Request: fold
Amino acid sequence: MSLLAASSRIGRVVEIAGWAAVAVMVALVVTQIVGWTGHRYVAALQSLVPYVLGLAFPLAAAALVTQRWALAAVAGAVAVALVVMAWPLLRPPAEPAAAHGATPLTVFHANLLYLNTRHEETVDAVTAADADVLAFTEYTPGAAAALHASPLADEYPYRIEYSHPVARGTALWSRYPLSEFRPPETKSAAVLARVESSDPVVVLAVHVTSPLISTDDWSSELRNLDVAPLRDGEPVVIVGDFNATFWHPRFRALLSNGWRDAHQALGRGFSTSWPDDIQPIPNFVRIDHALLNEHAVATAVEDVGVPGSDHVAFVVTLVPAA
Reply:
C-alpha cells in the first residue's frame, strides 16, 4: 500500500470516528444551552462535560492535519464552547468584601456513606478537622453511635440529628447553640438552623436525590434550595451532597440567582470530590458543595479525606459580608 493510500485511509477513519464523536459533543452542548437534563444518562454525561468536550481539542487538531476542514471547524467550535462555559471557573467573579472585625466560622461537611463501617477512623478525621459546625449526610445510627461515644459529643453539645439506616440521614453538630427552622423539602432529611455564634450564620445541610434515581426529584430539590427565607439579610451557607456539578444547568441556575460556590470563588472550581473509594481511579467530579448567599464570604476551603466514605469532605471558613 502506498503512503498516499495509507494516509487517505487514516483520514477516512479519523473523519468517520470524528463525526460520530463530534455529534455527541454537539448534542451535549445543546443540552447546556437549552438547560435540559431530562434523563439520567444526560445527567451522567453532563457531569463529564470537561472530559467529553475536552476531546474536541485533539479532534480538531487531527482533522486539520488530515485536511477535514468541516470537521475541524465543528470540533473547534465545540472547543470554544467549552472554554466559554468554563470561564467562570477559570476567572471567578470577585468575592464581596468581608465585614471588618467579624469572627470567622468554620463549617465541615462529610457524606459519611451509609455502608461505611470504619467509624473510629471517621471520628479521627472529623476531630482533626476541628470545625465549629459539623454537617453530616448519610448519617446512620452506626455513625451516630460512634460519634456520641467519642469526645466530640462533649465538644459539640448542640445537635440536630435525623439518622437513617440507609442514605437519608442528616445531622448538624455545633459548638454554639442552634435555632432550628423548617428546611426545604427533600427526599433525604435536611437540617436548617441558625448557628448562634458571635456573628450568627444560617446553615442548611442537604443531600439531594441523585439524578440517576429520579431526574424530576433531583431537579425539584435543587430548585427548592433557593427559598426566600434564605435571602432575608443573614449570612447563609448551604453545605452537602448536591449530586450535581457545575456542568449541570440546574445547578448553574442556583449560581446565576446569586448563590456562590466556595470552591469556585476561591479558585478551586476544577477540584473534585467523588468517587473517592475506587482505586486506582481518582475522583473526577465535584458534587459536594458549599453555597453562600450574598451576605456571606468564604475566606478558605480545605478538602478532607474521610476513611470509608466515597466522598471527599471539606471545611469552609466564612464571615459575614460587609
About this structure: DSSP finds eleven helices and twelve strands in the chain.
